[in-house]
Design brief:
8 strands, globular, 123 residues, 46% strand, eight-stranded mixed β-sheet, 2,3-Dihydroxybiphenyl 1,2-Dioxygenase, domain 1, single chain
């Protein structure tokens, strides 16, 4: 397992992307729509930042984050958590590029994403 990306929910995707590109030297890796969200991945030197723009955004909490870890097998993650009575809060999903992803909640309500990059998970 290795760290894959940090994600930030933003109010304006274009303004945020321009900010991180200008001040941090990140370059757009890809952008797409998924489950009613607009998403841009920015990347530099092995670091990825995912910017997410959603329709519903709380005015009290304008930003939220999640951590993502790249794994060899989504199914191994599912089995390890299921053995301990922990179930995904979202997913698994297959993205248009073939990545498999799912989300769990950590002990302090943080969101932890696991992503399998190479090939599709065995179902």
């Amino acid at each position: 397992m290795r760290f894959h990306h940090l994600a930030i929910e933003v109010k304006d995707l274009e303004i945020s992307a321009a900010f991180y590109q200008k001040y941090f030297g990140l370059k757009e890796e890809r952008h797409f729509h998924f489950n009613g969200e607009k998403i841009i991945f920015l990347k530099a030197d092995g670091f990825r930042l995912e910017l997410i723009s959603t329709i519903e955004q709380s005015s009290n909490n304008p930003s939220s984050i999640h951590l993502c870890f790249e794994v060899e097998s989504i199914n191994e993650v599912i089995n390890r958590f299921h053995e301990n009575g922990i179930f995904a809060i979202e997913g698994p999903y297959t993205l248009e590029n073939g990545w498999e992803t799912l989300f769990y909640q950590g002990p302090d309500n943080e969101v932890i994403e696991f992503m399998q990059i190479g090939g599709k998970a065995d179902k």
